[in-house]
Write a structure and sequence with these properties.
Layout lengths: L2 H13 L2 H8 L3 H15 L4 E4 L2 E4 L1 H29 L3 E7 L8 H11 L3 E7 L2 H9 L5 E5 L7 E16 L18 E3 L5 H12 L6 E4 L3 H9 L5 E4 L8 E3 L5 E10 L6 H13 L1
Parallel strand pairs: 3-4, 3-5, 7-8
Antiparallel strand pairs: 1-2, 5-11, 6-9, 6-10, 6-11
Length: 285
């Protein structure tokens, strides 16, 4: 038994019509019919008599109507109490992001936060994934959205989606460096922080091709690496959409997957504000 099916049952009884109920519920008539059929099939009963001028409740349908209305009333009370509780959540919340802007619709998140959790004041920052985890441990943050999927048991993590990483090369290298994948070992490289998941992927890639490219720079955040690639300092690993730039060439190869997750300390995963914000993030991911 599902609540939408009960709501459809009560509405059809009120309208004495599939079409009228569909209009009132903003559903397709076929969906309304499917809801009624699902209830009848689940319990082996007949709720309505199909007449030439509409639908009429059977004796069974009439006897169940009072309970159906009670269920809907109880659901409305539950929803009102839940909304009231959510509106009472207040305080400052510290969230840090390491993922690229295209992967997370910040504007939509802030809009939903204002609508659903008006009492929560958000303090937002950006940092490298490893430093976000350190800040969580030091109680400098409440939650982070970071690259990676496997974390220390001290952390609770909720996988969101996967980013696609690509090898980004300066367009100015055309004719200056051989940009073929087999020649990656000869290209100047901009690495990330040692604890960054990107660097772990880079290291695996280099090990796969048995190469050790010269490191010219190390930059933790992707925006800095992107600017350095554009300026012609070296090649680097970037999220695919961040690598879209007139002065960047993407090496023609299969993108490298990298998961990203919502992370908080394990003992805080059931905090009311963290649970509410986690639900917002999950819905937007």
């Amino acid at each position: 038994m599902k609540l939408p099916h009960i709501r459809t049952f009560v509405t059809v009884a009120d309208q004495s019509s599939i079409t009228g109920a569909a209009r009132k519920l903003s559903l397709a008539p076929s969906t309304v019919s499917a809801h009624i059929a699902a209830l009848e099939n689940e319990y082996g009963i007949q709720l309505f008599l199909r007449l030439h001028n509409g639908l009429r409740l059977t004796e069974t349908g009439r006897s169940l109507m009072a309970q159906a209305e009670e269920i809907l009333d109880a659901a409305a009370v539950f929803e009102a109490q839940a909304r009231s509780y959510r509106a009472q959540l207040t305080g400052q919340f510290r969230l840090a992001l390491s993922i690229a802007e295209p992967l997370f619709d910040l504007a939509a998140f802030l809009h939903h936060l204002d609508c659903h959790l008006p009492g929560v004041e958000l303090q937002l920052s950006r940092d490298e994934s490893a430093r976000i985890l350190e800040s969580l441990e030091q109680d400098k943050l409440d939650m982070g959205i970071v690259y990676g999927a496997d974390f220390d048991p001290r952390f609770f993590s909720m996988p969101l989606r996967r980013a696609e990483l690509v090898i980004a090369l300066p367009r100015s290298w055309h004719g200056k460096h051989d940009s073929a994948r087999k020649s990656l070992g000869n290209l100047p490289w901009i690495n990330t922080g040692a604890a960054c998941p990107f660097q772990q992927i880079i290291d695996k890639l280099f090990a796969q091709f048995n190469i050790d490219p010269p490191q010219v720079l190390r930059a933790d955040d992707s925006q800095t690496r992107r600017q350095l690639v554009v300026a012609g300092f070296g090649a680097s690993l970037l999220e695919r959409r961040e690598a879209v730039h007139p002065d960047i060439v993407i090496l023609d190869s299969t993108p490298l997957p990298c998961s990203y997750s919502l992370v908080t300390l394990a003992h805080r995963q059931f905090d009311p504000v963290i649970r509410a914000l986690s639900a917002l993030v999950e819905n937007l991911a």
